[in-house]
Amino acid sequence: MAGLRPYADVLLCCFFFPLLW
After folding, report:
1. What is the DSSP string of 1-21?
2. CA angle centred on 13, ends 7 and 18, rounded to 5°
3. Full-model pTM
4. Residue-wise pLDDT tens digits, 1-21
5. Cα torsion at 14, 17, 18, 21 (round to 10°)?
6. Distance between CA 12 and CA 16 in Å, rounded?
7. What does the alpha-carbon distance between residue 6 and residue 20 come to, in Å, rounded to a whole number?
8. Distance from C-alpha of 3 to C-alpha of 6, rounded to nearest angstrom
9. How many CB atoms are located within 10 Å of the residue 19 CB?
10. What's the pLDDT score for residue 1?
11. What pLDDT is stored for residue 2 in this prediction?
């Protein structure tokens, strides 16, 4: 699971950035 942490962070950034914009 720890290996997927950076990938999850990138997905969260790509997902939340348009919402916050």
Report:
1. -GGGHHHHHHHHHHHHHHHH-
2. 140
3. 0.32
4. 567 778 888 888 888 888 777
5. -170
6. 6
7. 21
8. 7
9. 6
10. 54
11. 64
**Tokens 């790509």 — which residue?**
14
Residue type, 6: P
Tokens matching residue 18: 């348009």
